[in-house]
Write a structure and sequence with these properties.
With 204 residues, this protein is an all-alpha fold. The chain has one domain. Helix content is 72%, strand content 0%. It has nine helices and no strands. It holds the Pfam family ExoD.
């Protein structure tokens, strides 16, 4: 039988989950109840901000590719394939990474409160879903050090959604803009470098 939804702060639930020997994705969704879609976006977004081995952001970014469009198209609860719902969450890896992100999450929860409700109308939630979908695609690409700002933007927007905190949503939009700026700058530098290399080759 699924556990009753847990209405404690997400940081408390995550700390408890990390201490459990095993918990399935489905059990995690049931525990978060109506907050599950935002909570999952937050969890995978936070994971993408951690220093991960090559390919790590791809692993954690793929669930965001699945979840972001659901929010974009107005879903209130996450749809997860049945086979994935039965898989265990890697609580050992979660326990290693949580000390890095929990202090930030706890501080954000402490100052967060429902405000600027108009940012969470139908269009507002769809905008967050669109941004998370685009950033998810960025996160699965093998861009060196390209995970921090997009992962932080997804995390802040997801927490804003859970807390109904419009001020946090504005911070998330600012981080999204910063992510776009950094990516455009990086793309320009790469294109310039390739141009110089090709120029040197053709001149030789």
């Amino acid at each position: 039988m699924p556990k009753a939804p847990d209405h404690r702060p997400l940081s408390e639930v995550l700390r408890e989950v990390a201490d459990e020997e095993r918990v399935s994705v489905g059990e995690l969704i049931d525990r978060f109840g109506g907050r599950a879609l935002g909570a999952l976006l937050l969890i995978f977004g936070l994971a993408c901000t951690l220093p991960l081995p090559p390919g790590g952001t791809t692993v954690f970014g793929l669930p965001l590719v699945l979840l972001g469009p659901q929010l974009l198209f107005g879903a209130r609860a996450p749809w997860i394939p049945q086979g994935l719902r039965g898989r265990d969450v890697p609580t050992a890896d979660l326990k290693k990474g949580l000390p890095r992100v929990l202090p930030w999450l706890e501080r954000a929860e402490a100052v967060s409160k429902p405000r600027l409700h108009f940012l969470f109308g139908s269009w507002g939630q769809r905008l967050i879903g669109l941004i998370c979908s685009v950033l998810a695609i960025v996160l699965i690409l093998p861009i060196p050090l390209g995970n921090l700002l997009p992962g932080a933007a997804v995390s802040v927007l997801a927490l804003a959604l859970v807390q109904r905190d419009g001020a946090l949503a504005l911070v998330g939009y600012a981080l999204t803009a910063a992510s776009a700026g950094v990516l455009v700058l990086a793309a320009g530098l790469i294109a310039r470098g390739l141009g110089q290399v090709l120029g040197a080759i053709t001149a030789a």
